[in-house]
């Protein structure tokens, strides 16, 4: 079995998991929610095996590098990290409804990678031939994944806040499957607290890598600039929450804005702007 086939299985499994989570919201059956979690777990295991197999295929073809070097591989890895962070939070807190708002991010990534992107294994360009590649990419994408989970939770918060309209009565219907609004706010904060230090470490390792590859720690490349913008957005989130007591709707909106900036930093810069990271195409 090839890695491509396993990635296709992963994509289908994430689609099944997404459908099950939406069925959970409609049916309110705990067993259905648990089935969605285990479907996501099965897809995660399959994707882990596929990433390992692709790594082996790289060695078999004489390239011998981790599958983190081009747009296809980075999108696949991003999807993997999203499910990893989601499963950690899901098994810790058991709020299954969150899966309906987070697993689709991984599904969209896998669908785009499998249906549209070039999946050929290519040799590394000289700038990528460094162990810093793995350190930098892993820390950045774990941070991105935590922000994706925070975004999904924030969307849930904004939906609940809008539909409740400040009513303190117990929620009914679809909203009854959402965690309490204060819980959603707390989960958003915790997810960003996971992502922010990882993004910081990703920027630090990226600077070290840049010095190794190009002889300078910082050159205001578009990717570097947007990474700094994303860092400031989430730093502002944490500062406002800790010192100004920003919670609730404002925090949720800033979380969504932060993830939009993250996606532009990741994809927009690589696809639409020229710079040292243009090899990501």
From TrEMBL:
Please give, as recorded in its UniProt entry, the membrane topology of this protein: Multi-pass membrane protein
Q: Where in the cell is it found?
A: Membrane
Q: What is its main location?
A: membrane
Q: Where, by residue number, does the polypeptide cross the bilayer? A: 6-25, 32-51, 71-89, 96-113, 133-159, 191-214, 226-244, 251-273
BP-aspect Gene Ontology terms: cytochrome complex assembly
Q: Which UniProt keywords apply?
A: Cytochrome c-type biogenesis, Membrane, Thylakoid, Transmembrane, Transmembrane helix
Pfam family, any one: Cytochrom_C_asm
User: What InterPro entries does UniProt report for this protein, alphabetically?
Assistant: Cyt_c_assembly, Cyt_c_biogenesis_CcmC, Cyt_c_biogenesis_CcsA, Cyt_c_biogenesis_CcsA/CcmC
Instruction: Pinpoint the Cytochrome c assembly protein domain residues.
Output: 68-277
Q: Which GO terms describe its cellular component?
A: plasma membrane
| PANTHER family attached to this UniProt entry | CYTOCHROME B_B6 PROTEIN-RELATED, HEME EXPORTER PROTEIN C
NCBIfam families according to UniProt: cytochr_II_ccsB
Family membership: Belongs to the CcmC/CycZ/HelC family.
Job description of the protein: Required for the export of heme to the periplasm for the biogenesis of c-type cytochromes.
Q: Which protein, by its recorded name, is this?
A: Heme exporter protein C
């Amino acid at each position: 079995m090839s890695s491509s086939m396993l990635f296709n299985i992963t994509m289908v499994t994430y689609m099944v998991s997404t459908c099950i989570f939406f069925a959970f919201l409609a049916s309110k059956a705990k067993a259905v929610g648990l089935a969605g979690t285990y479907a996501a777990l099965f897809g995660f295991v399959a994707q882990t095996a596929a990433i390992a197999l692709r790594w082996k295929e790289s060695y078999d073809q004489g390239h011998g590098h981790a599958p983190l070097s081009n747009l296809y591989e980075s999108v696949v890895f991003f999807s993997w990290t999203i499910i990893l962070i989601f499963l950690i939070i899901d098994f810790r807190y058991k709020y299954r409804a969150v899966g309906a708002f987070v697993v689709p991010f991984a599904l969209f990534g896998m669908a785009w990678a499998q249906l549209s992107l070039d999946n050929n294994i290519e040799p590394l360009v000289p700038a990528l031939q460094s162990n810093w590649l793995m350190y930098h990419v892993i820390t950045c994408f774990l941070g991105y994944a935590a922000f994706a989970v925070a975004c999904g939770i924030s969307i849930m918060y904004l939906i609940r806040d809008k539909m409740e309209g400040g009513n303190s009565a117990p929620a009914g219907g679809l909203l009854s499957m959402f965690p309490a609004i204060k819980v959603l706010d707390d989960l958003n904060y915790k997810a960003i607290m996971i992502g922010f230090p990882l993004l910081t470490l990703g920027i630090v390792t990226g600077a070290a890598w840049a010095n190794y590859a190009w002889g300078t720690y910082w050159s205001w490349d578009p990717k570097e600039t947007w990474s700094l913008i994303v860092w400031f957005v989430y730093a502002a989130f944490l500062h406002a929450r800790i010192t100004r007591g920003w919670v609730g709707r404002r925090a949720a909106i800033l979380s969504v804005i932060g993830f939009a900036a993250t996606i532009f930093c990741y994809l927009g810069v690589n696809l639409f702007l020229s710079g040292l990271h243009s090899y990501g195409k």
